[in-house]
Amino acid sequence: MNVLEVRDLATHFFTRDGVVRAVDGVSFDLAVGETLGIVGESGCGKSVTALSILRLIAPETGRIVAGSVRFDGRELTALSDEEMRAIRGHKISMIFQEPMTSLNPVLTIGTQIAENVVRHWRLPWRAALDRAHEMLDLVKLSDPRRRLDEYPHQLSGGMRQRVMIAIALSCNPRVLIADEPTTALDVTIQAQILDLMLELKEKLGTAIIMITHDLGVVAETTQRVIVMYAGRKVEEAPIGALFARPMHPYTRGLMRAIPQLDAEAELSGRRSRLHEIPGIVPALTQPIAGCAFAPRCDFATSRCPVERPPFAELEAGHAAACWEARRVLEAAA
Amino acid sequence: MSAPASLEVAGLVKHFPVRGGWLRGEKPVVRAVDGVSFAIRRGETLGLVGESGCGKSTVSRVALKLIEPTAGTIRLGGVDVTHLGPAAMWPHRQRIQIVFQDPYSSLNPRLTAGTIVGEPFENFGIAAGTEKDERVARLFERVGLRPESMRKYPHEFSGGQRQRLGIAKALALDPQVIVADEPVSALDVSVRAQVLNLMIDLQDELELSYLFVSHDLAVMRHVSHRIAVMYLGRIVELTETRTLFSMPLHPYTDALLSAAPVPDPARKRARRAIVQGEVPSALRPPAGCHFHPRCPYVLPACKVTDPPLIEVASGHHVACLRRPAGSDPVPLTPTQ
Fold it and tell me: What is the chain B residue with the closest CA to A270?
């Protein structure tokens, strides 16, 4: 069963330089209790996709121009602002990269969690504070009773992210969107937070959308992955298949560009060269007729820059938007 | 006697005073760097890895003499430059250059790319006019930029190209040592590979020595010949890259390596966070071994004794009381 269904979502920003097609027709499903990864590099549209689901695009800069977002059968794009506010932080929650900028510096931790509980569950303040205490316990913050009365600046980065998770999960949401939740954290703290998120997911059955640029984080936390490039979904696959048999040349390029354990080179004491993806991402202000990756692609043929490739499933649950996907698969074998 | 190290620091200490504490008459200090020693050979990359606040960036800035050390010595190509004033330091500045993390904020937006890269030639009175332009053009080609783009401004370049500009400028004076402080951390994966390959090519060709500062273990493993792991101002382990990854001896190194997410779903681990808690403040570092409050293998002695960095096997230096010289590199038994 799907808790979230996104169809042909398009979000544009209107700038002095023209229309930026940040999300350019993206579709995907999120099953109940599933962890879905969205990967891609800066500007690929992964964060804007998340903000669009929650309708958090500032109207003076951009808007959803097409597509549908269905949550539990309800069309989110058609809801009033008031109806949408009842869903945010309640049924669908989000945590961001930098917890310091998402927490209110002048309110105590306890107030910030209780606020959300009072708003959505209409509990009395005392009961909401009890819930806040329970949540801090759940996210394993040491000495939760004392933390309730502390302010964000008194906590470390890792502790703040635990508080963000406590707020996000305080009303038992069905979907948690995590946008680079550990990117600002040190690696030992990152491991603690990722462990915590996975543990809570098991415990509470919340579906998670994990947005990240880090292929390591995706590999360790998700079951299924969407790869985005220039505002479009270019590949979708179960996590194992994505790494074992990338079908889109961009995914393949990304995999080969990350430093790997190269046992032979290391033994001989020589450093191997990393695979480079030549060129840079295209500007999103110009309409792209064919495949957006064509100018950087080793597999491109003459049709690629002119004809947009359809999203085609070549294996069960594994699909890519590439005319040459079969050749890419063969190259991986 | 072999050739002197390109860069050698010994017993480096840097304390930053902080406000407050005057009532008791003692000035509190942040012990950013607390006794760090290493030497980098010609053509070698020494990686300096650690989490935020471990002092790795401070070490790089002290090595460049951008800030003065509280104690310790800095030698460039065998010459002690620790106490040289700005004027006396001037000729030695050419030997050591820096590449910054953020290519957006380290390039003057009002100057053309050619002017930026050519600045060192003028500053050091090496070349001017046409000769300077020719040398700048050669540098552009060397780092994979088109010489025509000399007339462009920084904002007209992509992130990866800007980092190439930073590298070109660092190379202008033909240095022996380049300090690279998180040079690819701000770049996307696909572009990062381009810049790392360029840095490796330049090193092989020009026999440059790199002090490569990063928090990214995968990048570190790729570029470094040797790696020093820092924790709260001290080096806790220093050895050849492959030894560090195959046989980490310090519990903190072990924790760091197992915490890093591995881009391979087949090797997904059940529990990655083997250390709990967070890095303590450098204002009041724990007594004894700085890592002891988080260490699963702690002994009573660890809480009082500073473990010295000793060579436990050839070229493998570890600061851990549980790893005495000549001990077998067997896994430790947790004590808590």
Answer: B225
> What is the token pair recorded at B91?
């000729």
Phi, psi (deg, nearest 5) at residue B112: -75, 160
Give the whole-angstrom CA distance, residue A236 versus residue A254: 15
Which candidate in A141, A220, A277 is best for mutational testing of the B interface (most B CBs within 10 A)? Answer: A220
C-alpha–C-alpha distance, residues A276 and A227, integer Å: 18
Model pLDDT for residues B146-193, shown as the tens digit of each residue: 999 999 999 989 888 999 999 999 999 999 999 999 999 888 888 889
Residues A261-306 pLDDT 10s: 544 455 555 567 888 898 888 888 888 999 999 999 999 999 999 9
- The ipTM of this complex is 0.84
The answer to whether the CB of A10 falls within 8 A of the CB of A25 is yes
SS3 B330: coil
What end-to-end distance do the CA atoms of chain A give, in Å?
A: 33
Question: Are residues B189 and A254, on separate chains, in Cβ contact within 8 Å?
Answer: yes
Best to test chain B binding among A160, A188, A227, A255 (most B CBs inside 10 Å)? A188
Q: How many CB atoms lie within 10 A of CB B301?
A: 13
Q: Does A271 touch chain B (CB under 8 A)?
A: yes
Optimal mutation site among B45, B198, B222, interface A, most CBs of chain A within 10 A = B222
Helix ranges restricted to H, chain B: 56-63, 86-93, 113-123, 129-142, 159-171, 189-206, 217-223, 241-246, 251-259
Q: Kindly list the residues of chain B whose beta carbon comes within 8 Å of any beta carbon in chain A.
A: 51-52, 158, 160, 188-194, 196-197, 200, 215, 217-219, 221-223, 225, 241-242, 245, 255-256, 258-266, 268-269, 271-273, 275-276, 278-279
Q: Is A127 helix (H, G, I), strand (E, B) or coil?
A: helix
Instruction: Classify strands B45-49 and B226-231 as parallel, antiparallel or unpaired.
Output: parallel
pLDDT of residue B269: 56
Q: State the nearest Cα–Cα gap between A179 and chain B, in angstroms.
A: 16
Please calculate the CA angle B45-B259-B49 and round it to the nearest 5 degrees: 25
| C-alpha span between B141 and B313 (Å, rounded) | 44
CA distance A243 to B29: 48
Strands A207-212, A175-179: pairing kind: parallel
In angstroms, what separates the C-alpha of B260 from chain A's closest C-alpha?
A: 6
